[in-house]
Amino acid sequence: MQYGWAGFLLLSIAATGQQYRYQNPALKPNERAADLIPRLTLEEKAILMMDESDAIPRLGIKRFSWWSEALHGLANNDSVTVFPEPIGMAASFDDSLVYQIFDAASDETRAKYHHALRNGKTSKRFLGLSVWTPNINIFRDPRWGRGQETYGEDPYLTSRMGVAVVKGLQGPADAKYRKLLACAKHFAVHSGPEWSRHELNLNNVSPRDLWDTYLPAFKSLVQEAEVRQVMCAYQRLDDEPCCGNSRLLQTILREQWKFPYLVVSDCGAITDFYSSHKVSSNAVQAASKGVLAGTDVECVWEGYAFANIPDAVARGLITVAEVDKHLMRILAARFELGDMDDDALVPWAAIPISVVNNEAHRQLALQMAQKSMTLLQNKQEVLPLSKSASTIAVIGPNADNAPMLWGNYNGTPIRTITILQGIRSKMGAGKVIYDKACDLVENKVTQSYFSESVAAGKTGFKASYWNNRDFAGKPLITQQLSHSFKLTTAGQHEFASGVPLEAFSATYEAVYTALRTEDIVFKCGATGYFELFINDSSIAKYHNWRTLPSRIPYSVEKGKQYRIEIRYAQLNNWQANLEFDFGKEVDIDFSALINRLKGVKTVVFAGGLSTLLEGEEMPVSYPGFKGGDRTDIELPEVQRNCLRALKAAGKTVIFVNCSGSAIALGPETESCDAILQAWYGGESGGQAVADVLFGDYNPSGKLPITFYRSLSQLPDFEDYSMKGRTYRFMSDALFPFGFGMSYTHFSIGEARVGSWASNNHRSLALTIPVVNKGKRSGSELIQVYIRKESDTSGLLKTLRGFKKVTLGAGASMEANIQLPREAFAFYDTALREVAVIPGTYELWYGNSSAEKDLRMIKVMVTDTAIIGSTAGR
């Protein structure tokens, strides 16, 4: 959207009282930066190279925060629109809708930012105009917890989606001011494991894998989308940390791709040089290495290495001229945003706060959630369900779970429609039986002992709150908590009436007298500083930037008293969350559940995973999970057992799998009549699930990742060779890349091959007949894959074109897909570069990557033409 362009006028220097050229908005960003740089001291230049960049009042430079997130809507902010997680958006294969979503997300970011400034607040982390989005790493292994943030395993799909994201975030290319600064991350060759990313050294990545798999999306975002930032990754590539890697940042990014904009570090990646990778001896050396390699802005959790830049200059390790090169890019970017100009000159500043989570954005969230739904199994066409059924059961740990739908790197929406709520909206609450049935991973349930604890002669815990983070002085408020608690500042909720939303601390105290000698567990979760004491001894402690439930076992003796104390403090820049309970664990028995469901024929089981289990560098692990990654890829055992119990009881089982990654659903194909892959669907995810289950929306999602049969099909997690990974190098998938069912049936005919010219560049045109042979209207994704006939690398095929067609029942059309000459480019080992090599190429086209779903024709590529052929199958 554009606001106020028609009335846009530049104010004259005289009218605004400007003194220096850098204050003149009529000049180009680089001209303004060149005038400002000599006016800065070396210490001030170092400050401007930090992600939390303090103001320099004497020059009119405002405080600036480089780190905000907009992965699927503005993150770490309340009352925003939360769109589906990117892996779900990738399943839509709809890059035009992706553009609309990030155009909307950038509107909300601008509106929230300027609304905050007008209310006396300054730029702060997570509410700024630089958003570190999108994540365009290749999701090469389903164990990676952050794969949900990506657009899947295919370089071409990732490129298409990533370009759309950047264009939506940054605004029209011909606008005077950038709407936001987007960021392509993490450069490069990065996709787990989370537990070793600060020390991992990748020294066996082949040139072919590098150029054909790991780099194409970055090149597209740099050259096609003109992304303004590239973030370098944590790990080493060929012995050099990525943020100090001259080959990546200089040879490839600057020299070959001609990237003129910013390189920012992942948070803590520069300090990793000496603290983890041990390639630098101290912060001064690390800062010098990062600067010389090409990193412009350093992000840290605490303690900037770049604060030592003046010292590095004094030692002769780097020069002032080198520092100034970085300042030119940094300041030009800020001028491009209009950061130092009056808001009256920047049309984006006029976006009203009313745009945030408005009805249009809510509809975009629902539309994308619907398009992401991917139907994997539908035995005897049990779907769609009938709304007139007498009763239906909705069970499972994700059935009524709102935070699960939000995914990770998320904001908090005004309202969320859970799966249970969505289904109730179709049938009425009275016809729907709900039972959580089981947890995500735990084979036991906890009988709470919270109400058996005592504080100050009253049942429960005494809570005390301070208006500082140090438990200093007299408590601001004290109160009694009689039940286990889940507290959050999300949505501007106070922990207790009168407790500030930020900069506070709290304690929770009680005495528990053990009724018997037994093993109990403490169930805790916190965003912030958390420490648990038993009889004045600390038994658990962490500082955490997301809420990660933890299970802490503890043995008690009958009759003995245990003083329990929790100490909590809100961390700067993060919303506060705290949850706590304790008690005895007992085995799950599904017989009670089955008895409750007597007379109910159809059961919708909503399970899978959540961002409590898979995510970024998580300190809490469960069986099958480690540090945010997975150590196996099966559905957690407790859920498998529940599904088997339901099937054994004769139920028709509809499994709604919510996850950000592929799950080996082999057993589930036997115990479930239908399987719907629902990803993490955002604020309207539950409505989209219900729309598909009841046939109000015909599913059209396609898998952007391979669903493997078992972990045995995968190489070692830390092996970055593509051999045996993804649809491009393996074919024995449970559910293949590009697969997804519909409630109707499409027939794809034989393609006609032609050629066309665009700006004197010859291209190949495929015309593919498509017929809807079913009784419902629906959409089908036509996919085109390419392979060079003489290729001996092991590459089976790779996606190079796709088009979604929508047809009414019985209707037909011809899908036209153009393949430019560049679609036939691959890395050539002899030339040591990506090139189009003359020869015969196989074109595979159909509705999934599985060979059974594809037809093949061959074409000849010469130095001057692409010639169609009738040979093929």
TrEMBL record:
Pfam families to which the protein is assigned, alphabetical: Fn3-like, Glyco_hydro_3, Glyco_hydro_3_C, PA14
Coiled coil: none
Record domain PA14: where: 456-598
Gene3D superfamilies: Glycoside hydrolase family 3 C-terminal domain, Glycoside hydrolase, family 3, N-terminal domain, Immunoglobulins
Gene Ontology terms for molecular function: alpha-L-arabinofuranosidase activity; xylan 1,4-beta-xylosidase activity
Domain of life: Bacteria
Transcription regulation keyword on record: no
GO biological process: arabinan catabolic process; xylan catabolic process
Family that this chain belongs to: Belongs to the glycosyl hydrolase 3 family.
PANTHER family, per the entry: BETA-D-XYLOSIDASE 5-RELATED, SUGAR HYDROLASE-RELATED
Protein name: Glycoside hydrolase family 3 protein
Record lineage: Bacteria, Pseudomonadati, Bacteroidota, Chitinophagia, Chitinophagales
